[in-house]
Structures are given as structure tokens and as C-alpha cells.
């Protein structure tokens, strides 16, 4: 597995992690057990960055993650998110406590503001986040779905800590962030966490250069994950519970293409 620095922290996280949107929704104990098994297999494969959110399945996604990392907490980097309706100070504190309980941990590695909320002053939210760092309940602060201007405002609101990441949709099918968000993250040394990097499984295989697929002996999904993470400021969190796809994702950055080849993919 390839590793990259999280922001300017010195912390290393895998280039390919795991998303959990959709996990926590299940109709049987067997289905839940399969979700737990998938996360554990992903951890074994080196995808030790796991991203979730209190919003996912009304908190049950965090519970599935908590079960998956039980007994191996120190080997996993857990990222979760506070919902936009919970950004007042008291609500941030309450939401974090609930996430800690569901995750079965005493500290969240990366706590992110899931979406901006212009109705709540970002200074209040960031003050609460800094309090959580001081209390040892979270390690790093991140944002999600923030524009460069919104990210700058959040950064300016902090007094002792830094924003280390921005999680945002990024795929071969949707790469509008390359205009402003990605250059901002590169310039400011923020990690861009790409969610839905495989466009939720909607892959146009016919548009990919077959010669490169054959040259490197890779699948279309591997090619796309490799392309999404070609910039060193980017890590990706594809979501799957398919064990074969997990292995596919984990080995997607085993080799790197040259710049001219990346240009062929786009």
C-alpha cells in the first residue's frame, strides 16, 4: 500500500482507504456481519483509513465500523463527520460523544464538518472542534464539501489547530474540483479525500484506453482509482462490501503511470 501525509501533520494514511456510505443499512444479522467482515478484510489489505459519518444510516454505519475495528483500534485511522445541523457548540460536543460511543473508541482520528451551514457561525463550530482536540476526543480537524473560500474561513477561525483535509466528490466522471478546490488543497498542503471515486460503480469502461489496461494488467476500477490519486495531495475512499473488489481496490496503486498516460485517461 502507498501512504501519504495527512495535511502537514506528519501522519501517514493509505492512499486508498474505505468509505462506508450505505453501510449500517441491513435487513439481517448476516448482512451486518458481512459488512463487518468486508471492513476487516480491507484493513488486512492495508486500507486502514475508514471514513464514516453520524448521518450514515442514522449512526448505524459508525456502529458497524466500531465492531469491525474492535481489538485492532490502534491499527486503524478512523474519520467521521458531524452533520450540518449539529454545528452549534453544544451540538458539536453532543454529536462527538455519540459518535465516540457508537465507534467504541475514546478518540476520533479525524473529525470533519460534513457540510457547511451558513446559518451557524463557523467560528462557533471551530471553537468547539478545538475544545475537542484539547480534551483528547479528536486528533485532527477536517471539513467536507467546502469551497476554497469556506475552507479559508474555517481555517481563519482556528486559533491553535489546523484544517488538515477537505473531503469532496472526485472521480473521472466528476472532476470539476480540478478548477479550484484541488489547486487550493495542493497550494495549502491540505489532503483532499476523494469520495465516490468510482462514481458509485457507474464506470464507462469503453472510454478507458485499452492499451494501458493491457500494459499494466489492471481493471477499469483500478485505472480510475490510480488516476484519481495521481496527485500526492489526494487519497480516495471507495466503498464496497464485495471482497473481490476490496482486493482490486487495495492493489490499484501498486504501480504508477507516467504523466502522458494519465492524460490519455482523462
Describe it for me?
- The chain has about 270 residues and is α/β, with parallel strands linked by helices.
- It has a single domain, classed as NADP-dependent oxidoreductase domain (TIM Barrel), CATH 3.20.20.100.
- The chain is about 40% helix and about 15% strand.
- It is built from ten helices and ten strands.
- It has helices at about 30-45, 60-70, 90-105, 120-135, 150-155, 180-190, 210-215, 220-230, 245-250, 260-265, and strands spanning about 5, 10-15, 20, 50, 75-80, 110-115, 140-145, 165-170, 190-195, 235.
- The strands form two sheets. The protein has an eight-stranded parallel beta sheet, with helices on one face. Strands 1-2 form a two-stranded antiparallel sheet.
- α1 crosses α2 (about 60-70), α3 (about 90-105) crosses α4 and α4 crosses α5 (about 150-155).
- The longest helix is centred in the first third of the chain and has 16 residues, at about 30-45.
- It is globular and about 55 Å long.
- The mean pLDDT is about 95.
Which tags fit this structure?
266 residues; alpha/beta; TIM Barrel; two-stranded antiparallel sheet; 10 strands
Could you say how many structural domains there are in total?
1
The backbone outline, from C-alpha atoms, is globular
Biggest β-sheet: strands ordered side by side in the sheet: 3-4-5-6-7-8-9-10
Would you tell me the overall average pLDDT?
A: 97
Class by helix and strand content? alpha/beta
CATH architecture: Alpha-Beta Barrel
Helices and strands in order:
Blueprint lengths: L2 E3 L6 E3 L3 E2 L9 H16 L4 E3 L8 H10 L7 E6 L6 H15 L4 E6 L8 H13 L3 E7 L3 H10 L5 E7 L11 H8 L2 E5 L14 H7 L3 H9 L5 E3 L6 H8 L8 H7 L1
Parallel strand pairs: 3-4, 4-5, 5-6, 6-7, 7-8, 8-9, 9-10
Antiparallel strand pairs: 1-2
Helix pairs in contact: 1-2, 3-4, 4-5
Amino acid at each position: 500500500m502507498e501512504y501519504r501525509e495527512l495535511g502537514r501533520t506528519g501522519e501517514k494514511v493509505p492512499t486508498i482507504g474505505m468509505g462506508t456510505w450505505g453501510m449500517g443499512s441491513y435487513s439481517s444479522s448476516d448482512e451486518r456481519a458481512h459488512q463487518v467482515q468486508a471492513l476487516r478484510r480491507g484493513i488486512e489489505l492495508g486500507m486502514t483509513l475508514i471514513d464514516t459519518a453520524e448521518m450514515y444510516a442514522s449512526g448505524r454505519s459508525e456502529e458497524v465500523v466500531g465492531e469491525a475495528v474492535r481489538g485492532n483500534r490502534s491499527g486503524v485511522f478512523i474519520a467521521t463527520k458531524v452533520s450540518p445541523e449539529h454545528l452549534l457548540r453544544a451540538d458539536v460536543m453532543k454529536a462527538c460523544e455519540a459518535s465516540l460511543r457508537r465507534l467504541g473508541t475514546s478518540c476520533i482520528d479525524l473529525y470533519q464538518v460534513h457540510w457547511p451551514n451558513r446559518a451557524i457561525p463557523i467560528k462557533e463550530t471551530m471553537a468547539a472542534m478545538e475544545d475537542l482536540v484539547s480534551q483528547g476526543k479528536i486528533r485532527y480537524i477536517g471539513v467536507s464539501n467546502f469551497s476554497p473560500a469556506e475552507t479559508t474561513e474555517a481555517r481563519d477561525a482556528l486559533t491553535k489547530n489546523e484544517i488538515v483535509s477537505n473531503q469532496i466528490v472526485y472521480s473521472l466522471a466528476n472532476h470539476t474540483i480540478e478548477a479550484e478546490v484541488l489547486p487550493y488543497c495542493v497550494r495549502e498542503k491540505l489532503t483532499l479525500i476523494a469520495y465516490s471515486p468510482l462514481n458509485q460503480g457507474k464506470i464507462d469502461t469503453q472510454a478507458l484506453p485499452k492499451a494501458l489496461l493491457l500494459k499494466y494488467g489492471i481493471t477499469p476500477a483500478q485505472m480510475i482509482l490510480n488516476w484519481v490519486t495521481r496527485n500526492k495531495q489526494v487519497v480516495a475512499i471507495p466503498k464496497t462490501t464485495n471482497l473481490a473488489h476490496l482486493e482490486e481496490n487495495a492493489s490499484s496503486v501498486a504501480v504508477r503511470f507516467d504523466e502522458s498516460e494519465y492524460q490519455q485517461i482523462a
